[in-house]
Model the fold of this input.
Amino acid sequence: MVIDLTGEVVPCAYFHFSSGDQNLGNTNTRTIAEIWNGPSYRELRDRHVRSDFDGHPCGACVAPRLMNGRFPDFEWGAGFRHEEGHCHIAQIPEHFWQKHREHAEEIAVLEDGVPLTVPASVHDDIRKHGGGRYSIWHGSLYLSSIDGTSPVTNGRNYELRRGADAARIAQVHSNTRSGSNLALSYQEFCTGQVVLNSKPSKISFIETSDCNIDCPSCSQNEVRLVGVRHRPSTGTDVRNSIPFLQELIWHGGEPFLIPEFREFLKNYEITQNPNLSFGFMSNGTMITAAEAERLKKFDRFNVTISVDSFVRETYERMRAGAKYDRVMESLNRLLKMQNWPQRKVTVAMIIGKTNILDLAFNVNYAIENEIALMLNPIIHYPLTDRLNAFQDFKRDTVGWSEVFEETIDLVASASKRRERSLRFLDATGAVKELQRMYKAAEARHERCRRITVRVDDPHGSLRKMHSPGIAFQSRNQQAGSYAPIRDGVSSYDVLIPYDDAFESLDIQFYPNLYEGAGWTGVGRVESRDIQASANRVIDIAIPRYDAPVRPRNILYLKSNRSNALHVEDRRLIFDAYQELAFREQRAGFGMRRDSATEPSSSLRSKAAPDCDDVQDDAAQRELNARRGWFSFLVNYFRPYEVAGYGRDQ
Ligand SMILES: C[S@@+](CC[C@H](N)C(=O)[O-])C[C@H]1O[C@@H](n2cnc3c(N)ncnc32)[C@H](O)[C@@H]1O
Ligand code: SF4
Done:
């Protein structure tokens, strides 16, 4: 169960790719238990039991494409997973494997302390005949139990030994509440139950957007600004679920700012739930040696630290307020604790225009330093960093093609050398996906028309704006061209691809390109008109403007608790932003009309031939609000997508 900051619940990380904006309930109106056996979850299970996905999001699920046609297996959180016949596979814990890989033939495997006697078996024999046959193969153990029971559930200990050194394969502790819950859940899964007596065994929970630093491109800027929070009972509900969970992934904002998170890390005793794998994603700035030490109590953890570049200057530009050296010190401390697959440490790196030229360096750094690297492209927000929005594609992407080639060569040769970094998390797919996105954008920009935007700034407003810009965006925000506007420069050329996929592009003016909802409609241009005319000029006049106050992120920590926004419908985010903008306008901030006779949409193109005025930018904003936020789940829950992060690409 995945619970977003908006309270929206989806069943897994894959769901939102195919669900549009469907969800299975909202924790701001229902408890976890009510949602778990509510109508949407029941329908989901019923569809799976009957294999009837017609018109259901699971019918378009991306997971089977990733997993050779299969839906994800039932997950026990054990070291073993079933392969075929009697054969089960477990990844050998990394510390042990590194020490003994050169003498793999000397590694003994014990079942409940008794050595298994048929090593180096042919894998087909293990599958067909079982009987304790096993094989050690490239760091994995292929094993059958002696009596044909599943090592996932038979409750036995499986141990690897060489000399005095030993490593245990993680098992399910059955005599616990989480163990019983897993067993019941498996039974209900196998018998196709639609209403479950078992509880959720995995929860991913985005608790807050509170943060101690100020990344300019943070995907949570907007929800933070309007004060989106959970109703307080949701946090309690999640915490009460912990004894039954096999996995908890606790997200922020910055999780180390959440008092309950720190308290959990400090005081939780693993005996309360030995099956628990604990995970979080952090900016790494607050993970002191003492905090890291507390992680050691977990047999299994899954920690992700965001480092957007291993080049100090780029990192500090993208992570305003964080110190590279300090974060790397924390990261290195954590890396020493990693022992895949039980204790996982991953670096998450968003890839945007700011850091794309560091890609080869970063991937190489990760390989050399045995870091599992998860690459996530910026494709929804902000325009300034998006990999699918340009002013002049050729000029804006100088060096990209070469950097992709170089990075692909790097991962290919690292893969041949079986580097540990790729063994943890193979970045090959993600790099190829980035290259594919680049090539798709290149193909789209093969046919472009120039539009010249002339800017008149009679009130000297531009110098008061954070990052003004003009954008040409399709209604679903997937296609984008834009130009940042600088004080003192009055003319901008934007090369717009004319694309059959989009009928029209809205022309929008942003006083701050980092405030995704804060644009004003200037007009609309039809794709066929772009294609028909070689030279188009758009004149815009900037109205009076005074910048509204935007506090540093840390100040939201307390400031909007009293008037928190509990979202029952994503449109409320849009409404809250509108309300904020109106309040600010009344107080004399934002863009202002000069007189009552000026049009209410205070910015209009003075002469935009063939451009219709946007009749209803409220409707457009609402559409964007509905579509916008959910796409960000991608970065929290999965490393990368097979083809296309956005459904329209
Ligand atoms: C919002 S952060 C919250 C967790 C934590 N504060 C951190 O930075 O890791 C979750 C993830 O989203 C990524 N992210 C932030 N802004 C993004 C954007 N505009 N597009 C894509 N991913 C973004 C972050 O880099 C991070 O990996
Ligand atoms: S660290 Fe950066 S990306 Fe993460 S929540 Fe804070 S501001 Fe956003």
